[in-house]
Amino acid sequence: MFGRIFLKFFWDAYDFIGTLILANIAFCLITTGLLAAFIIIGYPLYGALGKPVVLLALGLGIFLTFAIPFPAAGFLHFLSIISEEREPEWREVITGLKTHYAPLLKVTAFFVCLLELLAVNIIFYIKPSASSHAVKLLGSIIAGLCVWIFLYLLVMMLYAYPLTVHQRVGMKKIFIRSFLLTMDNLGASILTGILALGLCGLGLITRGVAVFLLIPALTACLANSLFVNVMEKYELKEAAQKEQKMPTVQPASWKDIKHEEFIRDRHKRYQRTLKDILKPWEY
Questions:
Q1: For a disulfide at 225, which of 9, 65, 164, 243, Cβ 3.0-4.6 Å?
Q2: pTM of the predicted model as reported, rounded to 2 decimal places
Q3: For 204-240, how does the pLDDT look when each residue is reduced to its tens digit (9 = 90+)?
Q4: Sign of CA dihedral 240, 169, 101, 185
Q5: Which bin fits 183, alpha (ψ -120 to 50), beta or left (φ > 0)?
Q6: Number of domain units in the chain
Q7: What is the DSSP letter of 268?
Q8: What is the pLDDT of residues 113-137, one digit of tens each?
Q9: H helical segments located in the chain
């Protein structure tokens, strides 16, 4: 499955690279302005209170809560149009921002709160304050569990954001479905998470240049590709079960005639080779 995930991710980014770069630059400028506003407003308070680490963590969490939904809403709506085999236009990015920013703000706030609470627990339990060896060992075990939960939540976010855009369900369903999808597709989810971390590493290596140009857009492409391919797996299973239970029932639509062929046709754009990269006009 990871091969299909990577191919969709690559070709979606390749085919719409110009729009993605322009939108990425626009969103980076917006978030930079938001960061500047947070610094101007928050730094005097931060200095007046003696520069506590807790206040810095709180400010960072609030900034991420407001900043992350900007690119996520625009890019994921744009990419959802591509997944429906429709040709998206630039205004779809703006439409996605208007439609999905508020729901994604709630999702981001939820995950940021959980991640910051886990980070506090990890820092607390790894401190060598306990004198007893047994207490230190217990603290290390709890800290290790918190680290694994932290990483699991990061992978869940790759499902939670596309779920919010594609299915438009409530917070409870988003959390439950993203948890179950991660668990049921653990291998593909871990590999996709590693690739996402690789994109973040590329941003660090280039000192933020890649982030300014493309990294948020590529991360959105990756999350959308993971979600769409995983959901297609369940679509095929559901179609096969329907055929076994009701073999004589007439299909409700042309998509139900041969669901495998429908999925295959939807993936024709991703079945290209190196030749199509070098000579895209022949595609």
A1: 9
A2: 0.84
A3: 898 888 888 899 999 999 999 999 999 888 887 777 7
A4: negative
A5: alpha
A6: 1
A7: G
A8: 999 999 988 888 887 665 677 777 8
A9: 2-15, 17-48, 53-67, 69-83, 91-126, 133-166, 171-184, 186-205, 209-213, 215-245, 259-266, 274-278
In a domain, 250, yes or no: no
Domain range for residue 74?
A: 2-228
Is residue 153 within 8 A of residue 118, CB to CB? The reply is yes
Q: How many residues does the chain have?
A: 283
Alpha-carbon dihedral sign for residues 114, 120, 125, 131: negative
Model confidence over 234-270: pLDDT tens digits? 887 777 777 677 655 555 554 454 555 555 656 666 6
120 assigned to some structural domain:
yes
In whole angstroms, what is the distance from residue 188 CA to residue 252 CA? 32
Q: Which residue has the tokens 């000579």?
A: 279
Q: Is residue 265 in some structural domain?
A: no
